[in-house]
């Protein structure tokens, strides 16, 4: 049986500020490290004007490159963290 990405994707809403309302964990979640890094990458690399004037293709290309860069950054950080643990 093959799984579709949609089957494993967390469909809960992300709470960017504040707390998840009591008893609402089935509807809301905290952002993942990758989602936080993607948001920071977007803010650091796009002005508001650039964002709103981009075509759909430009946005798709930007996010594809951003995801690649963010994943590489997180991978390097994870490797560095593991190496520190081994050394210590």
Walk me through the structure.
This protein has 4 helices and 2 strands; from the N terminus they run H-E-E-H-H-H. The chain is mostly helical. The protein has a domain of 56 residues. The protein has a two-stranded parallel ribbon with strand order 1-2. The protein is extended, with a radius of gyration of 17 Å. The mean pLDDT is 91.
Q: Rg to the nearest angstrom?
A: 17 Å
Contiguous helical run count: 4
Mean pLDDT across residues: 91
How many beta-strand elements?
Answer: 2
Looking across the biggest beta sheet, what order are the strands in? 1-2
Which residue ranges are poorly predicted, with pLDDT under 50 across at least 5 consecutive positions?
A: none
Q: Distance between the terminal alpha carbons, to the nearest Å?
A: 43 Å
Name the descriptors.
88 residues; two-stranded parallel ribbon; extended
């Amino acid at each position: 049986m093959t799984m579709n990405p949609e089957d494993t994707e967390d469909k809960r809403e992300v709470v960017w500020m504040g707390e998840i309302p009591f008893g609402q964990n089935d509807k809301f979640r905290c952002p993942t490290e990758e989602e936080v890094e993607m948001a920071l990458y977007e803010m650091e690399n796009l002005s508001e004007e650039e964002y709103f004037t981009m075509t759909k293709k430009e946005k798709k290309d930007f996010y594809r490159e951003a995801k690649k860069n963010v994943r590489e950054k997180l991978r390097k950080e994870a490797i560095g963290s593991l190496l520190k643990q081994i050394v210590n």
